[in-house]
Amino acid sequence: MKSFSFLRLSVWFYLAIFFAYLLGPLVIMSVTAFNSPEFPRASPWECLTFEWFSALFQDERILNGIWNSILVGAGTVVLSVAMGLAGALMLTQIWPKLRATYYTIIIAPILIPGVVLGISTLVFWDRINRMLGLGADSFLSNGLFLTIIGQSTFIASYCMLVLVARLQRYDIALTEAALDLGATHAQAFRKVLLPFMKPAIASAAVLAFLASFENYNTTTFTFGEYPTLTIELAQKVRYGITPAISALAFIIVVLTVFVALANEANIRRKELVAAARKDATVEELESGRLRLPNFFSSNWAAVALVVVACLTIATVGTATVYSPQQCIADIREQKRLETEARIQELRQRRAEEAARRAAEEAEKGDDATGGTSTAPATGGNNSGFGNVFDPNALGGGSSDAEETDDQSSAPSSGGGSSAFGGAFDPNALSGGGSDGN
Amino acid sequence: MPSFLKEFFKRNGVGMGSVMLGLVLFWTIGLIILPQLSMLDFSFRPNLPPPEIGGPKDVYTLENYKYLIYGPEGGSQDYNAVDLRVFFRTLVAAVCVTVFNLILCYPIAYYLAQTKGNHIRIFALMLIIPYWINEILRAFALRIIFGETGVLNNLLVGMGLFDTPFDFIRNDIALYAGLGYAYILLMIFPIYNVIESLDRNQIEAARDMGASWPMIHRRVVIPYAKPGISSGCTMVFMLSAGALAAPQILGGPSSLWFTQLIYQQFNDNSDWPQGAAYAVVLLVTCILLVLAIMRLFKVNMGDIGK
Amino acid sequence: MSAGVGVDLENLWIRFGDFVAVRDANVKINGGDFFSFLGPSGCGKTTILRAVSGFLEPSEGNVLIGGNNMRGIGPNKRPTALIFQNLALFPLMKIWENITFSMEIKGASAKERRKRADELLDMIALPGQGDKLPSELSGGQRQRVAIARALCAEPDVLLLDEPLSALDLKLRQHMRTELREIQQRVGITFIYITHDQGEALTMSDNIAVMKAGVIDQIADGKTIYNDPATAFAASFVGENNVFRGKVQQVMGDEAMIRTNRSGDLVARISSANRGKLKVGDDAMMFIRPEAFSLAPQGATGDHFVTAKVNHEEFEGNVFNIFMEGEGGKELKVSIPNLGQSFEDHTGQNITLEYETQNAVVVPAGELAAE
To answer: Which segments constitute the ABC transmembrane type-1 domain (chain B) (predicted)?
Structure first.
């Protein structure tokens, strides 16, 4: 019994670590969207702010990227669901000898690296374009067309897998029955097969849209003049990150959670209704007096959905009335004080040192003390600054360079003391930056 | 008209049949086969400015492949040490990421598949939600955590474990964590699907006969889950070897991923044939590796994607 | 209703690759008939049905419906309606939508459809059930909905592919009567596929017995039972005891067979084989279990059979006696239970008697598998 509970405990421990790994980054990223420093970070917490959301909504490139992503996504959904459905139908009736080869071909795009798909799409359509004698601005070399084509190549495989799973449960006799009752092939497809496939088509469409929306590897070769949101994000993230991106991520996270919960609540409700219908007697069904379960009864997803909705409304409500100016000013003041204190300290130390050195010089007059790691005095006033800059330049590393570049305005515009303080501690850089504004 | 086509059109109607056949042919031939062949063909050609394409200089050559092995002609070294090192490092790292993911995900997949209850649905939801969020944003989230001044460093320094912030990015820890993170779902789902269909009685029977848990997994669960495991491993390996976003965002400045070389050839050097050759090398190597491993573990292509 | 539309199969061959599913079938089905194809599974009867409904194009020969050649006409253009083995009700449509699907195709208004659905629901004794889903009905109810859906299309010919096979025994027997009643009410031609001879015999005007793609005999139920044309028909329809032998003598409509085990026996030659059976031919003689009666011990002659009793059983309405028969198969005799005393014969030899009219001779041929 004891070992059993130990096993249980370790299972829960493992689950906790796993989900912390899975969800932690998202939570922390979401938190950074509300923190005021210009470099996204969750700690130290400075001020609650919503300015990154307004920064996000003023970013033309992001908004344009969202629009392009929707265009590409719509095209990809239509093309890949259509191809996936055709591919799945073909799989059920293809000549048995060809089946394995055919399956390998249509499943391969899932395994081919996205980079390779992007390149092959680009190279192939470029060649077609040249063969047709079209110019560089033709329809075929258009970024929108290429991206949709490139993404659909492998997204259609995902759709096919989703659709074929449902299709396997389809009784071909249903189509035959429709034909037998006078329907044309198109009518049988539309009125019988399509309604049956509808749930799977909906899942495939959602999957296709999400896959398209987040695709980077393929799109990065094909986007042309239509950079999608992912491409814009990647460029922003590669060349310096701001909490505005966290704000966008937060919005996407909330939307995702919302949709997922809504879907789950809906499924749960359907299950409960089906269970109730099954238990109901014919009389109850006929009289319409069957009591269907309440939307919230034993439906955790629905409850969670409402909680998320309330939280969102509360957040938006707060954002409209809340102003972080006071807090930011406080923080700035605090930083200024800290910086001043440090300068004071430094001056004091330098003064002490100078005094000691003077004393030593006065006593011996030859060697400097090894205990302090200060640079050899190169000259009067500047040596203090040298002290401060040197360790930073050594420890900062080039990975920091991008961040530093992004806020490079801070030291130059911030004036003497803030540049000094900023260099002292990279953490304070953003503070210095905002100081300069 | 061949009889199987006639049969096909009889079964599906001429209109529906043509649409179906057209879509399938467009997908398989127009989107899958021809572009790959085209890329292969392209990789054997010299990099020429557009007017000279199809001209006398446009002949087949092995130059692009030689470049990967020997480096630029007249170069100082015998071998293209930089690119080759990146290539092998990518493959080895992808294997490591795959193994790490398998070890991390197998217990979770087993737990989800063999436990009943409402909380499993919540777990499943929590598992899927991160994958509805942009790949770039996932990498971005990890960068916030692993950054010099990120949460993790603050925590470690705050706890006194480290004196100075540890550079996770330069040491590629962020990259491996990011790659592992990116493909968790692709590892869990195939394994989950297979284990879910395993009759619980088999496990009970094994326990009844006195087998220990490691024994049960080694002799009952893992052999049964092999198709799922190989399917998950194949996907994770191929995708991490072919990943581009995570290395670009989380990779250290000095360590490149092979896909980044391809990207550079295309976007920075504008040397498409060279990039195509690198892409072909990546694709072929990955496929050969996967096939070899599938051979080793005796699983079929048909199991992939189930 | 009209006299109905007939269906003719002319020299019909259907091949799948090298496999011949139907071999030279010639059938004339009269308008308004209830016609059954009876045969074991895999004999090609469903293939014939699919050829009539248009899902299959015959390799050779023609299907004529009402005298019109159906070659090249798709299933949706033929005046037939098929009831599938698993019924194939559309699972996502309500019952009334299922029933009136054929009207929806023609663009009828919802109101018209609803009205027609109510009429048909009344006819199949399911009034007021139109708003349910197929999954909410019982097996027998679904069965009737499938019939109503097919009838709603107003076909000239209704095709039924073993529609009762999924039902339990009692319901199956009930549905037989019901199907026959519906057929008589609507007066259209029914073509029914079954492997159950009970179904075929109780419902059909005429039956075609099929074996491995070949039609052995076409006749009404009584004829098939009493006067089978082939060994297969004799052994497949109802229980029968077989005696193998050679024709010893032909005497008008009767023949004397020298059987392998029971000496010379006389029986009626089945009408399809009269004049064809000659002395010296291999022949098979069939006697139904109920055609025997007990005879005095040791009686001999051309209509007496003596054999050893293996075991006996009491079935209520009959006593069954199982005796040593030919080729490892037991000879079965059923004596009606009329309240007489019945002693145990196990292990003894007993002698049986039959009327030569009740025994039938056909040329030797393949027997139906058990």
So the answer is: 87-293
pLDDT, tens only, B185-233: 888 888 888 888 887 788 878 877 877 777 888 888 888 888 888 888 8
Whether residues C288 and C192 fall in one domain? no
Q: Is the pTM of this model over 0.90?
A: no
What is the token pair recorded at B56? 């006398």
| Residue C369 located in a structural domain | no
Q: Residue A76 and residue A409: Cα distance in Å, rounded?
A: 42
Q: What is the mean pLDDT of residues A200-209?
A: 91
Question: What backbone torsions phi and psi does residue C267 show, to the nearest 5 degrees?
Answer: -155, 165
Do A266 and A343 fall into the same domain?
no
Q: Which residues of A touch B184 (CB under 8 A)?
A: 22
> Which runs of consecutive H residues, i.e. helices, occur in C106-168?
110-123, 139-152
Q: What pLDDT score was predicted for residue A5?
A: 76
Contacts of C162 in chain A (CB under 8 A): none
Number of independent structural domains in chain C: 2
- Looking at the complex, report in whole angstroms how far the Cα of residue C138 sits from the nearest Cα belonging to chain A: 12
Q: Report how far residue B170's alpha carbon sits from residue B175's, in angstroms, rounded to the nearest whole number.
A: 9
pLDDT tens-place string over residues A394-419: 333 333 333 333 333 333 333 333 33
Domain carrying residue A317:
29-56+242-322
CB pairs under 8 A between A and B: 275
A183 contacts in chain C (CB < 8 Å): 76, 101, 105
The domain segmentation of chain B, as residue ranges, is 1-43, 57-303
Asked if the C-beta of A182 comes within 8 angstroms of chain C's C-beta atoms, the answer is: yes
- Mean pLDDT, rounded, of chain B: 80
- For residue A281, the chain C residue with the least C-alpha distance is C136
Fold classified for B57-303: MetI-like fold (1.10.3720)
Q: Is the pLDDT of residue C37 over 90?
A: yes
Determine, yes or no, domain membership for A208. Answer: yes
Q: Does A433 have pLDDT greater than 50?
A: no
pLDDT tens across B70-110, in order?
A: 766 666 667 777 778 888 888 888 888 999 999 988 888 88
A41/B144 Cβ within 8 A: yes
For residue range A224-259, what is the model confidence (pLDDT) as tens digits?
A: 888 888 888 888 877 777 788 888 888 888 888 888
> CB C149 to CB A178 under 8 A?
no
Looking at the structure of chain A, the number of domains it has is 3
Q: Is the CB of A330 inside 8 Å of chain C's CB atoms?
A: no
In C, minimum Cα distance to A285 occurs at C132
Q: Indicate yes or no: CB of C106 within 8 angstroms of CB of A182.
A: yes
Q: Name the pLDDT band for A115 (thresholds 50, 70, 90).
A: confident
pLDDT recorded at residue A148 = 93
Distances (CA, A) of A369 to A82, A361, A376: 79, 11, 10
The answer on C26 and C95 residing in a single domain is yes
Q: Are residues C190 and C291 in the same domain?
A: no
Same domain, C116 and C17: yes
> What string of H, E and C letters represents the secondary structure of C237-268?
CCCCEEEEEEEEEEECCEEEEEECCCEEEEEE
- CB burial string A371-403: b at 16+ within 10 A, e below: eeebeeeeeeeebbeebbeeeeeeeeeebbeeb
Name every chain A residue with its beta carbon within 8 A of the beta carbon of C53: 180
Q: Is the ipTM of this complex over 0.90?
A: no
- So what's the pLDDT on residue A415? 36
B130 to chain A: which residues are within 8 Å by CB? Answer: 22-23, 26
Q: Which residue has the tokens 């109101």?
A: C111
Residues A37 and A81 in one domain: no
User: C106 and C34, same structural domain?
Assistant: yes
Q: Which of C75, C86, C91 sits opposite A179 (nearest CB)?
A: C75
The tens digit of pLDDT for each residue in A142-161 reads: 788 899 999 999 999 999 99
Searching chain B, which residue's CA lies closest to the CA of residue A155?
B27
Name the burial class of residue A37, with classes exposed (0-12), middle (13-18) and buried (19+) by CB atoms within 10 angstroms of its CB.
buried
Q: Do B32 and A106 touch (CB under 8 A)?
A: yes
Name the closest residue on chain A to residue B4, using Cα atoms.
A95
Nearest-Cα distance to chain B for A398, in Å, is: 8
